[in-house]
Amino acid sequence: MQVTETLSDGLKREFQVVLPASELEKRLGDELATLKDRVRINGFRPGKVPVAHLRRLYGRSVMAEVVQNAVAEAERKIVDENALKLANQPRYDFPEDKDEMEKALDAKSDLAFKVALEVLPSFEIVDVSDVAVTKPVAKVSDEEVTEALERMAAQQKPFAAKAEGEAAAAGDRVVVDFVGSIDGEEFEGGKGEGVTVELGSNTFIPGFEDQLVGAKAGEERTIVVTFPEAYPAQHLAGKEASFATKVNEVQTPGEVTYDDEFAKTFGMDSLDALKDALREALQKDYDGRSRAKVKKDLLDRLDEKYSFELPPTLVEQEFQSVWQQVVADMQRSGRTFEDEKTTEDEAKAEYRKIAERRVRLGLVLAQIGETAEIKVSDDEVTQGLIARARQYPGQERQVWEFYQKNPQALAEIRAPLFEEKVVDHILGQVKVNEETVSKEALFADEDETEGEGGESAAKAEA
What we know:
Blueprint: E1 2-9, E2 12-19, H1 21-36, H2 51-82, E3 91-93, H3 98-105, E4 111-118, E5 132-137, H4 142-156, E6 159-161, E7 173-182, E8 185-198, E9 220-226, E10 240-253, H5 260-264, H6 271-305, H7 312-333, H8 344-371, H9 378-389, H10 396-405, H11 407-427, E11 431-436, H12 439-442, H13 455-461
Helix pairs in contact: 1-2, 4-6, 7-8, 8-11, 8-13, 9-10, 9-11, 10-11, 11-13
């Protein structure tokens, strides 16, 4: 096998691979000789089938396997001899001339093909001892725990029917039947019977609950509302609808007492235990938010320190992933680029920069992790997989089996674990300034921290 580099341009490489006809013939003969001892053909004793007969029967399929093995061997040879780290799977170009390819598959002429690939960039890890990042932190207050208790109580409060003739007020519940129509025609999904509506909960179409205030049991009303422009059902979005509504019952809420008995309805031994659990859960959310913000700050600092050529294919793959999500979100919300005060071309340019940032940071995190010999253990992956399976109650076994049978999917569990370990490693090298802030400040600009990590890069390690 002869391998010759024909192109070295930035991160692009191309190689010409040639397998002489004599080598093809030898490889084919070796495979057929091995096959002779395994096949059973009527009229021949085991191991006594003539190679020429085997070639007539299986020659083309065996040669296809020979070529496949040669391709894999060529890739290993290129990578090993040139000490390359591939950014993606190589592209193989075989002769387009059918006659030429047929001769090669019959070992009557040389087989020549091209291997095109992109390599990962080489760069030095920079010193970050001069980097300082800010970690905003907030502590859960007693008032926030009380607010959480009140929200839980609101979900648990008992309701009882109001006296006959009493009107519904904000905070009450009404049980209704309704039939919706647009321009006099009923529409799919617009009919309900025995539906409970809590007035003031803002869970129905805007205006629906307000028009039930003052209603009494047995009363019939026509409720007219307009579906929001961003309503998920596109055929209803922005349209005015009428609902012929009958009030079956008006219910008023009872009082909930915060005591040990209330706590027991949530599986806690006492009210103090419930409060402690709420505080811990809220603090976990706050700490997670703190982590996300200090991580974004760190990644911003790293992005300022690194500049190197990026593999075009990796950037394009990341951009397509980001752009598909953007388009899907816009379709779901019913918004347009004009609504966002931009154009599609401007938006694409902005999101391509985001894709480039993700790839750059990913490669940086991957190289830092490799240099620091950071590993993710099988036990850690298993714990991550268990956590993922728990997100699908009732389907845990199916989720577990899917990941176990798909190494690429399992790598999606390992990659973020690796990334978080690398981030911890870097945070240990920089100055972290903790800043106490309010809950509102901690959760401000929440969307900005989403998708800012180098997830695409941790895949290089995985």
